[in-house]
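cron nightly-structures :: item 1 of 1
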Amino acid sequence: MRRIGFVESNLSGSGFDALRAARKLGLHVIFFNCGLDRYHAAAGGTEVLSTCVDEFVSCPTHELAPLMAAVEQVNAREPLSALLSVAEYEVVPAAEAARLLGLPGPDPDGIRVARNKADQRRRCAERGVPIPEFRAVTTAEEAARAAEEIGLPCVVKAADETSGFHVVRCATMAEVIDGFRAIVSVPTNLRGQPRHREVLVEECLVGFEVSVEVLAAAGSVRVLGVTDKIVGGHNRFVELGHTFPTALPDSVRDGLARAAVAAAQAVDFDLGIAHIELKYTADGPKLVEINPRPAGGRITELMDRSLGVDTMELVVRQYLGEPVTVAGAGPARGAAIRYLTAEPGVVDTVTGVDVARLVPGVHEAVVYPGPGALVRPLRVNEDRIGHVLATADDPYVAGRTAEAAAQQIVVSTRPE
């Protein structure tokens, strides 16, 4: 039996789906992790760990040396056929470990450049990819000077986080300084890795946001589709909805797709699925960021429902060294998710979920917190409180269906 190692997982769909895909392919699944509590706390986590994982290996997963020691010990018992991570913070050490074992995997240097948003910006600038004006700074004085040169409002962003953590739109110089200090005051990122010393101060792009999902293999980068995105959260950038495939005109979609392919090639991303975010501005497409792993936010599930494929099975097969193809002539259906929000405070009542579930085309309508739970201010993706997922023959209709169902749900809160 072929054996596959996963280094951690994300908690927003594609990670758990990768484990399910490996199980469906009949693989012996080994899960390298530094603790399982967060998986059991996530919706579906206990189920997927109990049904899709054969072996758990506890080790520090956020850096190469301890991870490699654990991987080599497992590999010595019986060789692995594949090793990968679809979790943001572990993609670099997983790629390095796979390369050292001689297993199929992406170029670790390309993954490293893509993971570090400052290096990513520099590489794309060198290779002509359209990006916002930016500065990589290390002091508050440099941050203030960068904001003066770029102009307000600007964005202050950590180079090594994800899901909107430490990304803020700043309208005043005081907000720029506060944003910079909030990042550098914490010596590690969310997964305990040493914080990259540089902070990005960059142009605040004005335009609508999309993501482009690309599949890289054998020296080529193929666009699987473009996802329409809804972003909110005041001066934050919280993802509030996705629709796949985009309803944009072909000319706009094709321009966004070309820019995404150029970005993936600029950082030498050469195997697997990448989630590339862009904004379409008055000057055309501009890169927001490259994520060298599958999309979160249930986007890969939307792709599955639209394209009629198992997206994460494609990824697993690639890491097994198998050639993969995406069957079918194109998207057959539209699929959309809309996330729910509520005023910060303690949940008092939840109504309308049953009504939302009865809307034709709705597959899921879920509110995460129950009465008595705390709703946090909307700052990052993890502060969303529920979702509605719907499909239709047309992507625009799928999105409007999800919105109509979401409007039926009311989560009332009271002050904490």
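cron nightly-structures :: done
The chain has a mean pLDDT of 95.
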